[in-house]
Amino acid sequence: MGIASNHIVDAWIRHRDRDIKSDTLTVVLERGVKGETSLGEFDTPLDKSLDQDSTLRARITTVMEKRGLSETDLQELLDQTSVYGVSWVSIDESNRFLLGKAFEKLSPAALNYLGRELRVVVAETANLNAQAVNYADRYLLDRSGLAQRCQHFIEQVDLDALEAAITLGICSPLVLSEALHDDHFYEGVATQPGHVSAGLVVPRADLIGEAVTGIQETSSVILTGPSGVGKSALLWSVPHALPGVLWFRVNRLSPADVAEVLRLCRSHRVSDSSPIGLLIDDAGKGQFSGWSQLREEAAATPGLFIISTARHEDLLSLGDLSGNTTITVSLDESGAEAIFSGLRDRNATDSPHWREAFEQAEGLTLEFTHLLTRGERLSAVIGDQVRRRVSERRTIELELLSLSATADRWSATLPVDKAAEACGVSQFELKEPLARLAEEHLLVERNGTISGVHQLRSAAISNVIHDLPPPTLDHTISRLLSALAPDQIRRFIPNVLRDEPQIGQLIHHVAEREYNDAVKLTAYLRGLRIFDFYERAVNWVDIAERHGIPPANQPVAQLCAITGTVLPDFFPEEFNQAVSDMVAAPESSRGSALIHAIGSQRLAEVLVRADDVDLANELLFEFQGSEIDVVTEFRSALTPSSPLIEAMQRASITQIANILATANSLDSKLAQTLVESCDGEPAIIAKVRSADPWIIDLRIDGSGDEAVAFARVLHISDAVHGDPHDRVIALGRLLLRCFPRTTHVDVKLVLPGGHDYQIGEHQLGATNLRREYDHSELKVTWNQERMQVTKAVLGATDTERLAAALPLLEAASRLTRVVGNAFTAADVRYVDTNQLADEINTLGDGANQIGPSLNGRSRTLDIKGEQESGSMLADPLSGIVTDLTSNVFPRLTNLDNPAALAAHLSDQVIAKSLYRAQQEPWHLLGYDKFPDSLAALETDLQRLLAVVAELAADSSANQAFVRAARAGRHEGALGRAADAARTRARRRLQARKSELEQVGKTIGWRFRAYMSKDDHYQLVPERLITLDVPSLIDWSQAVEGIGAALQASGLPGEKFLLVPLRNGRPVESLAMTLNSTLLPAGTLGAWTTPLAQPHKTPLTMALDETVASVQIASGVLVLSDSQRTHGAVAKVAEDARQGFVRSKRFIDQMPSDSIIAQVSLFLEDLESQLQSEEVGESVGGGIASQFMQMVTQGHQTEMTISMSIARLMALEWDIDRDAAPQIFDLS
Asked: How many Cβ atoms are within 10 Å of 160's Cβ, its own excluded?
C-alpha cells in the first residue's frame, strides 16, 4: 500500500511537470493494490474509484502532505489520475475472452500463446519508450498494428505442435495465477503450484537466486535433498521470480516423449529472447526415463532450460550431472518461522513458538512440521519410500531398515557387522544398500555404527514396515536384541517397554537365553530396572497430585523418595505424607523376575566366572532388591581358582573397594567372604598402603564396641597432595569399603615433624566418616539415573515452560513494583490489599505449576548417569517467582531482620534465581536476550536491595526513605527511596573510610581505605587497606600494628584486606586478611580494579619455587626407605629435585649483584641442610617440619627467619633492583 501510494504521487508529479493539464494520467500497477477492488477501469479517476474511507486514498493524502503538497494538489491528483491495478488472473481471463471473440477458430492453447505474444509486443514497446529521449517521440501501439501482428502469428505457428504434447498428457502449461487454498497445507501435503500462488509456500529468496543463476549458467538445475525438505515448494516458486518465461510442467517423459516436448517448445519459438522453462518434479522416478536425453537437447537449444527435483538416492539414475547446477535444499530459520506462522494462523498447532521444534528437527522439514502438528505427511512420505522398495524387491534394504529404524526409534544404534550378520549377508554385500539408504536420508552410518537420521523418521519407518507383516515387530526386536551391543541394550529396553509393554515377555525370554554373557545380562537387568522405576515414577506423579503437590515441587518429593531422605518437621504435612506414600508404593519387578527365572545357582556360576572385577561389581549390584538368595550359592561356587578371585588379585584397590561395598550392601557375609578370598584384611591393608605410599599408620582397631579403620597420612603440601579435606574423605571412603566390618574411620593428615594439620583452632585434614554416609559410585549413579527418569516423566519442553512463565514473570515484575512502592512509602492507600494478596497467591500458585526442564532433550529414557539432578530440583522460572511470593514479599511486611533479607536478595534472588531465569533459552520465544519484564524486575530488585541493605546498616534511615518515597507520584516511590538509600550509603561509606584512615593517622601509618562499590550486598563487608611503604621491611613492622588498631576500631561483621604498596603498585604476595586474626592472603581477590597493576616478581617466584622444592624433598625423607622407593613417592622426589635445579639455574642466570649473592647464599645453605637431612645429620628439625610449623603455628627458627629475609630481598630486587641493596645496607 505504501509503495503503491508513492508510485502514484511520483507519477502525478512527473505528469504535472510536463505541463499537459488537459490530459489525464493513467498509472498501471502490475499486481493491483491489496484491499482495493475498483481499480479495473482506465477512464475512472481516483476520486470516483476510491471510497472516502479507502486506505489507498488515506495513504496518498499522507504522502502528499509529507511532500509539502497542498489540498488543491491532492484534489487535482484525484480528479485527473486513474489507476489500473488488477491481478494477472483477471488480465489473462480478459485476454482469452477478447482474443477468442476475434479469432474464434483458435484452440485454448493457441489463444494462451497469442496472448503471451501480445504481452511480448507490449513489453518490447515499453522498453523502447524507456530509452526514448522526448515524450513526443514515444512509440505507440494501435489496433491495426496489433491485429496485423496477431494474423502473422497465426500464419507462422505450428498449431498442431502446440496441442500435441499437452493433449497427450506429457506437459501442461503452468498457470502462475491459479491459487490453491488448502487449510491442511502446513500439516504436510505434497506442494503444488497453486500453493505458491496462494501464498502458502515460504519464499526462499536465497535458493531461488541460486536457481536463477544456475539456469543462466548451465540451462539445467537440479534441486536435491531428503524427502519432504521442500524441494517441490522451491521448484514451483522459481517461475514467480521469472514471469517473463513461458513455463510448462512435465508430467511424464519417456525417451519417445522428448521429441514432442521439443516440438512444443519450438512451436512457441523458443529463443534467448523468448525463453521457455520445463519443470520436472521428482525426476528420479521411472516415468522420467527420458530426462537425460531432454537435458542434452535443452543444452543445445538457446532459451530452453530445465529445473528438476530429485532425492539424493535418485541422482545416480539421472546419469552424468556434470553439466547441471545441483542445489541442496534444507530447512532454514526463515522457512521454519513462516511454516509456523501458517500453522498458527490456521489453528493447526498449539505450540507457542517454532524454534525448539526447528532445533529438534535438525534441518528436516517433515520432522519439523510433524513436531508442530503431529500430522500425517511424515508417515505418508516414508510409506511411499518403503513401498517402493517392496515393489522393487530390495529385500536387504528393507531388512536393514527394519533393524536400524527400530533400534533408533528406541534410542539405540546398530553395529554394521552385526547388522550384516542379522541380514544374512557379508559387510561387503551390505555396503551398497547401506549407501543407498544413507543417500535417501533414511539412516546414517558413521565409523561402523548405524543410527537413524531422526527419531521421528525412524519411528515412521518402523511403523510402516511392521504395520503389514512380515516381519512382525516381535520378530524384529528378537533379532535386534541379539545384534545390539550391551550398552545399547541398556538404552533400548526401557524405551521400547514404555511404548510397547507387551514386548516384556519377549525380552525376558531373550535375556534368559543369553544369561551366560555377563555383560549382556547386566545390560538386560539394568534396562528392566530402569523401566520398573519409570513405572514407579509415573505412579509417584499420581500420588503427588493426590496430595496436592504442585509440579514445581514434585522433583524434590521424588528425590526424597529415591534417596530415603528423612524430612525435617517444618516441611508441610501433605509433602511428608506424599513422600511416605511414594516410598511405600510397590515397584514392578521385571528385573527380579528375570533373576528368579535364571536361578541363584546359574547366576552364581556366571558371577564367579567373571574375569573382570568391574563387570562383576555391576552384575552384583543388579541383584539388589531381588528376593532370591544368591549369596549361599555364590559362596559355595567361589574357589581360589575362580576367575573372579584371580581377577580380584590383579585388581586395583579401588576396584576391590567397589565390589566389596556392593557385596556388603547385599549381605555382610558375602562381603566378608570376598575379603577372605583376598587373603584377609592384612593383605588388603598391604594393598591400600601400596596404592597410597604416604600412609604412615593403618590398622583396624576393634578394641571398642565398634571396629574403626585408623589411618595417619603424611601431608607434605597442598601442591603435592591437593585439598586436605578431599584427601581424607577419599581415603575414609576407601577404607570403609575395603573393610566391611568397620563402622567408621579415624583418618588424619600428619605434617612433617609429626604435627597435626591445624591452624589456630581450625583442624584441617581429619575425618570420622561413618558408613551410613558413604554411598558407592554405583549407588550414586543409580540415583542419578533415576532422577533422569524422573525428569523424563515430569519435565516440560523449554518452549512450554517459557511460554507458561512469561505472563507470570510480567506479573511478578509488576507486583514487585507495587509492593516496593508500598513498602518504601509505608503507604497502602493506593493498593487494594485484599486484591494484592489474592494476586500474590495466584501468582505463587501459577509458578508452582511450572515443571522442570527437559533441557532440550526428548522424553526418551536416554539414561547416561549424568550429574544433573541438582539442576532440575529448583527450576529458575518457578523459583524466582515463588521466592518473591513466598519469601521476599511476606518478609517486607514485617522487616525484623533487614540484614538477612538483604543477603537473601543479593546472594539468592538476584545472583542466582534471577540470573538463571535470564539465562534460560529465551531465543526459543524469539527474544535476543530475555524479556523486558526480567530487565524491569532486576531494576526493581536492585532498588529494593539498596533500601533494605541501608536499613540493615542503619535502621534509623527508615523515616528518610519514607519522606523520599512520598516526595512525588506514588508510582515512583521505590525509585526515589532507592536513590536516597544509595546516596546515604555513599555518605556512610565515605564517613567510614575517613574513620579508618584516621585510625592510621593516630598510630602513625597513613594508610588509605577503600570501600566496595559493588551492588552485591556483603553480610560481612570487606574493606581494602593499602599502605605505600618505603621498603617492605617497614611493611613487616607496620602490618601487626595496623591489624591491632583495625581490630580495636572495627565494626561488627567487618573484615579487611591489607596490601602493601611500593612505588604506588601493590605487592600481591604480601597481602594479608584480617578477620579475627591476620593470615596470608596471597591475592588481591576482587580488589584489582581500584589498584594499579601489581609488581612482577620473577626473582621472588623463582625463590619460592626453589624453597618449595626443598620443602617437598625434605618432607619425603619422613617416610621409610621402602616407602620412598615407591613409584609415586619417587616421582614427587624427582620432580622436586628437577624443580630445585630449574629454579636455581634461573636465579644463577640473573644479573649478579649483592642481593642475588645473598639469595644464592641462602639457597646454598638450604641445600646443605637438605643434604644433612638425607644422611641423617640434620640439626633443629627437618626443613619441611620447620616450614610447616611456621605456616600453621607461626613458630620461627633460624632457617625460617633467613628464608623470610631472603624473600624480602628478592621482592625488593624485583621492585627496584638498583635501590634494593641500599635498603639492606648491601651497597
From this structure: 11
Q: How far apart are CA 594 and CA 612, in angstroms?
A: 22
pLDDT tens, position by position, 692-723? 999 999 999 988 889 999 999 999 999 999 99
Bridge partner residues of 451 (DSSP): 444
Same domain, 172 and 150: no
Instruction: Decide if 1117 is inside a domain.
Output: yes
Q: Is the peptide bond before 470 cis (omega within 30 degrees of 0)?
A: yes
Same domain, yes or no: 1147 and 1212: yes
Please give the residue range of the domain that contains residue 272: 159-330
Exposed, middle or buried: residue 1153 (CB in 10 Å: 0-12, 13-18, 19+)?
middle
CATH number at residue 388: 1.10.10.10
Do residue 464 and residue 480 come from a single domain? yes
What are 564's three cell numbers?
A: 530415603
**Residue 890, amino acid:** P
The half-sphere exposure of 501 on its side-chain side, counting CA atoms within 13 A, is 7
In contact, 944 and 817? CB cutoff 8 Å: no
Residues of the chain under the 50 pLDDT cut: 865, 867-872
Question: Residue 695: CB partners within 8 Å, gap ≥ 6?
Answer: 688, 689, 711, 712, 713, 714, 731
- 856 plus 959 within the same structural domain: yes
Q: Are residues 799 and 776 in the same domain?
A: no
Residues 105/111, Cβ–Cβ less than 8 Å: no
- Whether residue 580 is contained in a domain is answered as no
Residue 484 and residue 403 in contact, taking contact as beta carbons nearer than 8 Å? no
Q: Provide the domain count of the chain.
A: 8
List the alpha helices (DSSP H) in 925-1012. Answer: 932-953, 958-965, 973-1003
Helix/strand/coil for 140? coil
Q: Are the CB atoms for 215 and 325 separated by under 8 Å? A: yes
| Nearest to 309, CA basis, from 279, 289, 332, 330 | 279
Among 70, 93, 73, 90, residue whose Cα is nearest residue 81: 73
Determine the Cα–Cα distance for residues 225 and 453; give it in Å rounded to an integer: 13
Work out whether strand 1065-1066 and strand 1055-1062 pair parallel, antiparallel, or are unpaired.
antiparallel
Q: In 416-532, which ranges are E strands?
A: 444-446, 449-451
- Chain centre to alpha carbon of residue 842: 32
* Separation between Cα atoms, residue 334 and residue 258, nearest integer Å: 38
Please check whether residues 144 and 170 belong to one and the same domain. no
pLDDT value at position 870?
45
Helices (H), 157-300: 159-167, 193-197, 205-218, 231-241, 257-267, 291-299
Count of helices and strands (H, E) across the chain: 56, 24
User: Which CATH number fits the domain that encloses residue 752?
Assistant: 3.30.70
Among 403, 486, 455, CA closest to 857: 455
697 and 774 assigned to the same domain: yes
Classify residue 517: in a domain, yes or no: no
Q: Per residue in 417-472, pLDDT tens?
A: 999 999 999 999 999 999 888 877 788 898 899 998 888 889 989 999 999 889 99
Residue 353 near residue 927, CB atoms below 8 Å = no
> Among residues 746, 781, 816, which one ends one of the domains?
781
DSSP-derived secondary structure letter, 461: H
CA 867/CA 299 separation, integer angstroms: 61
State residue 964's pLDDT score. Answer: 95
Among 156, 176, 194, where does a domain finish? 156
Predicted local distance difference test score (pLDDT) of residue 1179: 65
**Same-domain status, 929 and 828:** yes
User: Do the domain assignments include residue 912?
Assistant: yes
Residue 370: closest CA among 421, 417, 336, 333: 336
Residues 6+ away with beta carbon under 8 Å from 49: 38, 39, 41, 82, 83
Q: Are residues 405 and 378 in contact, defined by beta-carbon separation less than 8 angstroms?
A: no
* 898 burial via Cβ count (<10 Å: 0-12, 13-18, 19+): buried
